[in-house]
Design a protein that fits this description.
heterodimer, A: mainly alpha, two-stranded antiparallel sheet, about 0% strand, B: about 290 residues, alpha/beta, Rossmann fold, four-stranded parallel β-sheet, about 45% helix
């Protein structure tokens, strides 16, 4: 299974989409009702200061059922998951978790995944880690490898095939 | 010696060698025995935006590997620490999800019963090793060093999941630094995010977050900026010059890992703490030369 199957093959993703839909409906019907739009989430939001993310509006839109509009919007990808909104919400609404569910839905619906997320996923699939061992530079521009510091080999999944089968299953079918 | 399985994660063992080198050098001096375990994978947290279920499975898998060794888990990366702690909570409270995860783990002959504890560098030092023990081992106090601390968002929030330090007024690093002889002061931007999570899709904005925070720290006259997260350190140290450019500031702020500073205070030679790998101007601290 490659990256294509995991992210953009809409056919195999039906079950996954249903599951995320259930999660979103629960957030919409049960949790967003507690929100009284005090905007405490937005006042502390790290992404708001820089990128105009307004978590309280995301909650309001979800409450009104505008899920497709949110899933198609770029703004859900500006959250830097600092968890301040979840920590400070007086009603325990957790906008950050709503944003995670919306992003999951965007991916499961075959939308374009922004930036390097696809590369990270690809790397996890092939070696179990988001990136392989890097050659780094010292302050005086000498290159160094992990071995140069006497560090042991990096811990990775031993049986790559079994590992890949398990995580691929999660993305494309109900377990 | 107290034994812990070391869960290295992705960023530390593939790139942020200074953190790993200093951890492996310093913790044994405080009677911590770190055990390497084969087979770990990514904790899943960076995958959470794409597939939360996959993130949960990856965490459960790593917890199961540690449990098989019958060892508590030392997790130096706050992001991994949050992901594993959250998974721990789900596996303990949601039987349906636990059965589902264990059903999948069976394909690698694994299962998780929720028996292990998860610690991070800060609570390992502050709560498990203890301030008194650290105090007794200090050989070269960091006298007069003015330190700004940065905990990293994932280490302090969300407190609902159970984090090792307070979410709005974290002080454990300050307490540790005080017994090392340093002067650690609060500052208004202390809880601000480094922006690293945006590196994947909005790298310029990520750097701007880093630059904004570091600029304020520099203006307030701190000698050094201390962190405990490989993601944050990559932003504040490795990408400091670029971060400065995004806010039109010349940043010259020494940034070190807490374990590096601790090592110096315990009398470890600086060559053994990976200090050559810090790309920020740590030379101006004259650390370890006394």
């Amino acid at each position: 299974m490659g990256i294509v199957d995991l992210t953009s093959m809409a056919e195999g993703q039906t079950t996954l989409r249903n599951e995320i839909n259930e999660r979103l409906s629960k957030l919409q019907n049960e949790i967003s009702d507690y929100c009284f739009q005090c905007a405490k989430c937005t006042s502390g939001c790290e992404a708001h200061k820089l990128l105009e993310l307004e978590p309280h509006k995301v909650v309001a839109l979800l409450k009104r059922g505008l899920i497709d509009e949110l899933v198609n919007s770029d703004v859900i990808w500006t959250c830097m998951s600092c968890f301040k909104c979840r920590e400070r919400c007086p009603q325990k609404v957790a906008p950050v978790e709503i944003l995670f569910a919306l992003k999951n839905m965007a991916v499961a619906s075959g939308k374009q995944i922004p930036g390097k997320y696809t590369a990270m996923l690809q790397s996890v699939l092939s070696i179990g880690l988001i990136q392989d061992v890097q050659i780094v530079s010292t302050r005086d521009n000498k290159t160094k490898k992990r071995d140069d510091f006497g560090l042991p080999g990096v811990s990775k999944p031993v049986d790559a095939a079994k590992f890949q089968t398990a995580i691929t299953k999660l993305a494309v079918e109900k377990v | 010696m107290t034994k812990y399985a070391l869960y290295p994660g992705c960023v530390m063992p593939t790139e942020q060698y200074a953190y790993e080198v200093s951890i492996r050098e310093v913790l044994p001096l405080l009677n911590i025995d770190l055990v390497d375990v084969e087979g770990f994978s990514c904790c899943g947290e960076p995958m959470k935006s794409m597939n939360q279920l996959m993130a949960l499975y990856l965490s459960a898998r790593n917890l199961a590997l540690a449990e098989r060794q019958d060892l508590d888990l030392y997790v130096p990366c706050p992001m991994c620490h949050l992901s594993l702690s959250e998974c721990q909570r789900v596996m303990k409270s949601n039987t349906e999800m636990r059965d589902r995860m264990n059903g999948m783990l069976a394909s690698e002959d694994l299962q998780y019963n929720g028996s292990i504890d998860i610690v991070h560098t800060v609570d390992l030092l502050h709560d498990h090793i203890g301030i008194e023990k650290i105090k007794k081992r200090v050989k070269k106090p960091l006298a007069g060093l003015k330190v700004a601390t940065h905990y990293g968002c994932h280490l302090i929030r969300p407190s609902e999941i159970g984090r090792p330090v307070d979410s709005e007024n974290p002080q454990k690093m300050e307490t540790i630094l005080k017994v090392l002889g340093a002067e650690s002061l609060d500052y208004p931007e202390k809880l601000d995010c480094c922006g690293a999570m945006l590196s994947a899709n909005l790298p310029e904005s990520a750097l701007a977050k880093t630059g904004q925070k570091l600029q304020k720290v520099q203006e307030q006259g701190f000698d050094v900026f201390v962190d405990v997260c490989p993601w944050c350190h990559r932003m504040f140290d490795s990408k400091q010059v670029k971060a400065g450019e995004t806010v039109a500031a010349k940043l010259e702020m020494p940034v070190v890992y807490l374990t590096q500073l601790l090592g110096l205070a315990l009398g470890v030679k600086k060559e053994k703490l990976g200090l050559e790998l810090n790309l920020s101007p740590v030379d101006k601290l004259k650390l370890g030369d006394k």
